[in-house]
Amino acid sequence: MSRLFGSVRARATLGATLVVAVALVAAGAAVLLSLRSNLLGEAGTQAERSAREVATELAVGTTYADLSLDVDDRPVQVVDEDGTLVAASEDLERITGTGVETVKPRPAASPDGTGDAGDTDDADDDDDAGEPLEAGEIGERTTVSDGSATIDGDTEDYRFAAVPVKTEDRGRLTVYAGAPLSAEHGAVNTALTVMLIGFPVLLAVVGWVTWLVTRRALRPVEGIRREMAAITASEDLARRVPVPGTHDEVARLASTTNETLAALETSVERQRRFVADASHELRSPIASLRTQLEVAAAHPELLDLDGAVEDTVRLQHLAADLLLLARLDAGERPADARVDLAALAREEAGGRPGVSVREDAGAAGGVTVAGSRGQLGRVLANLLDNAQRHARSAVEVSVRRDGDLAVVGVADDGEGVPAADRERIFERFVRLDAARSRDDGGAGLGLAIARDVAVRHGGTLTVHDAPAGGALFELRLPAA
């Protein structure tokens, strides 16, 4: 069960069904209340109409015996101001809801049925008990109540309307007339039955349609999942997930997944090349050092001590370069210290023959950046090593401000870098044809390390043609 409702399709189906169910219940309740209110209002109107017809007869002096009380078999009562029933429907057997439960009239009337024709002043004095009326006038206000009545053995619920009327000879009377609520009960019960049957069917249809629609919508996602599982099992990063032609979120997800796979493939391939190149670079000095040690072990007099030291230093530098690259690849953040690039340039250039430092005289307070002094010093050292390796006679280091940037330039008077190779030289273990000698060209990691450090510091490292010929490497960093 938990696995079933752990799927997006099941949760979407359940959620949609619950929302529709709540909406249907709310709409059904509103419909039932509105239907009941309308039918009750209609019943009240019918009851009032019947009461006013009888009140009209009383207003014109119709005797109790001649009143139309048995029309449509509806319960009617006529009550005087004392609450005494003076007229009622002939077949009325029981009644509730009017306040007068008597069903047999006991009128205080004369033998001719015309009522007491005595003094009416007392009745006039009682006008204050209700709506003030003149003789022969019917009250405008109607009181509505609910109750039940039994007529000729049939008991039903009724809505009663009470209409006051003032007569000339019988004083103030109240006419109660009822309208049956059977139509209201029948309509409400029918609507409720339809809802109880139709709502579950409608919810089942909604759930089924939602299940089908979500299955169709999530089918590409399942294809992506299967392909990713296959890629994980096969470790073949060259494979790509299918991209649906729907141009929706799922298609964008597939495209992003493929871009991630491509970046991962590039990273893994770069790592493989890095390991292979590192192994190749380490093999030569290790083999050379081993050979020298084996010769020295057999023939101590032939030991090339300088060569052994040189190979050991070369191994040390290569291991340090590989360690720094590993730390940079791991995302190590540089320190947030303030570094004076002019002072750092003078420090790195000191003791190097043919290297001069030129500072921007307009940069008041020096050219300062935020970062790691050790890593930035490594950048300058690598650039100076590269420049001295290719310069004919001189290398110049310039430090200046360019807006919000600090710029360090390292220029040599050598042959320069061809335009086609100006990006390739920053790749790891890359050496141009003119510098492929391991003795002179290094391992091909210096410029790669320099650019990685520059990027980690939020800057750039590019190469151009120097004004006096040769190559000009420019390091641009945000100024502190």
Strands, helices and their partners?
Layout: H1 8-59, E1 76-80, E2 85-88, E3 92-96, H2 121-125, E4 143-151, E5 154-166, E6 172-180, H3 182-234, H4 249-298, H5 305-329, E7 337-340, H6 341-349, E8 355-359, E9 368-371, H7 373-390, E10 395-402, E11 405-412, H8 438-441, H9 446-456, E12 460-465, E13 471-478
Parallel strand pairs: 8-10
Antiparallel strand pairs: 1-2, 1-6, 3-4, 4-5, 5-6, 7-9, 10-11, 11-13, 12-13
Describe this structure in words.
The structure is a single chain. The chain has 480 residues and is of the alpha+beta class. It has 3 domains: 1-234, no CATH class; 249-326, Helix Hairpins (Orthogonal Bundle); 334-478, Histidine kinase-like ATPase, C-terminal domain (Heat Shock Protein 90), CATH 3.30.565. 47% of the residues lie in helices and 18% in strands. The protein has 9 helices and 13 strands. The strands form 3 sheets. The chain has a 6-stranded antiparallel sheet. The chain has a 5-stranded mixed sheet with strand order 8-10-11-13-12. A two-stranded antiparallel sheet has the order 7-9. A hairpin with a 4-residue loop joins strand 1 (76-80) and strand 2. The protein is rod-shaped, with a radius of gyration of 53 Å.
